[in-house]
Design goal:
The chain is mostly helical and about 350 residues long. Helices cover about 65% and strands about 0% of the residues. Helix 6 packs across helix 7.
Length: about 350
C-alpha cells in the first residue's frame, strides 16, 4: 500500500471494517453523531457561561449607576458609608483595604504552606502516608465557612493573641504591624481574619498543586537525578518549573475564594466606629466587600442603599475578573515550558 508524504495512505480513504466512512479533519472530531452532540453541548455550555457572566455584569452596572449618580461623595476615595437621607455619601476605601489585606495575608500563608504540603505528599511521603495526608487536607474544603468563623472566634482566637503581641513587639515600629491600645482584640482583626482565610484556602492550593506535581514526567525527574542532583535539586530544577502554571492557577482560585468569603469574615471582624481615623494596621477591625454586603443587606430598604451595596459588589466582581485575567496571562506565558 503506497503512502504519501503527508502521512496519509490509500487505506485512510477506504471505509472501515464496519462500513463507516473514513475519518477526516485533524482527528479532534470524527464528524459522527456522538462527536457532533458533544461538540455542540460543549460550545453551548461555553456560550452560556459567557452570557451568564455578561448578564451579571450588566445587572450590577444597571443597579449601581442610579445610586452612584445620587452619591454626594467620591465612591473611590471616600471612607464614609451613609446611604440614608436625601444626600447619601458612601465610598469603598475601607472596604477595599480590608479585602486586599485579608486576602494577601491568606495567600502569603496558604500558598507556601500548600506547595510545601503538595511536595511532601508527592515527592517525599511513602504511599501509606501520602493518601491519608491528601484526604485529610481535602476534608478541610468540606467544612462550611461558618464553622471556621465560629471556631476562630471561640477557640483559635485566644491562641492568636500572644502571636499578635510578639509581632507587635518585634515589628510594632512599622504602622502596618502596630497594635492599638484601644483597638479590637486580636481575634477580631484583619490579621486573624486573614489567618482563618488561609486555612480555608489551603485545601484548594494543596489539592491542585498536588495534582500538578504528580504529573511531572518521570524522565524529567530521573534525568535530573542521573546528572547527580539531590532530591531537593531535582524538585527545584524539574518539579517546580513544570508545576509553576498549576501553582499559579491554584493560587488564583484560592485568592478568588479569599476575596469573596463572607460568613467567616463577617463573624470575625470588628466593625470600625463611624468617623474613626484611618489605620493601616493589620491589627485593626473593618469590613470587606462581602461582609459589608452581608451586614448591610438587612438595612437595604431603599433604592439608594441597595444600589450602594450593589456598587460595592460590582467592584468585587471587577476585582475578581482582573485577578483571573492576570493569572491567565501569566499561565499562558509559562505554558510552553510544560508542553
Amino acid at each position: 500500500m503506497s503512502t504519501s508524504i503527508t502521512g496519509r495512505s490509500a487505506a485512510d480513504e477506504l471505509p472501515g471494517p464496519d462500513g463507516r466512512p473514513p475519518l477526516h479533519g485533524d482527528g479532534a472530531g470524527t464528524g459522527r453523531l456522538g462527536d457532533r452532540l458533544f461538540g455542540g453541548a460543549a460550545t453551548a455550555s461555553g456560550v452560556f457561561v459567557i452570557a451568564l457572566v455578561t448578564l451579571v455584569g450588566v445587572f450590577l452596572v444597571a443597579q449601581a449607576v442610579p445610586a452612584l449618580q445620587a452619591n454626594q461623595a467620591n465612591f473611590l476615595t471616600s471612607r464614609e458609608w451613609s446611604t440614608a437621607g436625601a444626600n447619601p455619601r458612601f465610598g469603598i476605601v475601607d472596604l477595599l483595604w480590608a479585602t486586599v489585606v485579608t486576602s494577601v495575608i491568606a495567600m502569603a500563608i496558604a500558598v507556601p504552606l500548600g506547595v510545601a504540603i503538595a511536595l511532601f505528599i508527592t515527592q517525599y511521603a511513602p504511599a501509606w502516608l501520602s493518601r491519608p495526608a491528601a484526604a485529610t487536607i481535602d476534608l478541610l474544603a468540606a467544612v462550611p465557612s461558618i464553622v471556621f468563623g465560629f471556631w476562630g472566634l471561640t477557640i483559635a482566637g485566644q491562641y492568636f493573641e500572644p502571636v499578635a503581641s510578639v509581632i507587635d513587639g518585634a515589628l510594632g515600629w512599622i504602622p502596618f504591624f502596630a497594635e492599638s491600645e484601644d483597638g479590637p482584640s486580636a481575634k477580631s482583626t484583619l490579621a486573624f481574619a486573614g489567618v482563618i482565610l488561609a486555612i480555608m484556602v489551603l485545601p484548594i492550593v494543596t489539592a491542585i498543586s498536588r495534582e500538578v506535581f504528580a504529573q511531572v514526567p518521570t524522565p524529567h525527574k530521573e534525568g535530573a537525578l542521573a546528572l547527580g542532583a539531590t532530591q531537593w535539586e531535582m524538585i527545584r530544577t524539574a518539579v517546580l518549573p513544570f508545576g509553576k502554571p498549576g501553582v499559579i492557577s491554584a493560587a488564583m482560585l484560592g485568592l478568588g475564594r479569599a476575596l469573596g468569603e463572607t460568613l467567616a469574615v463577617t463573624i470575625l471582624l470588628s466593625a470600625l466606629n463611624e468617623g474613626s481615623a484611618f489605620s493601616s494596621s493589620i491589627f485593626n477591625g473593618g469590613a470587606t466587600f462581602a461582609s459589608k454586603i452581608a451586614l448591610g443587606i438587612q438595612e437595604a430598604n431603599s433604592a439608594t442603599s441597595t444600589g450602594a451595596l450593589v456598587a460595592a459588589g460590582l467592584v468585587l466582581f471587577v476585582l475578581t475578573f482582573v485577578v483571573n485575567a492576570i493569572a491567565r496571562l501569566i499561565i499562558e506565558r509559562r505554558k510552553a515550558f510544560t508542553e
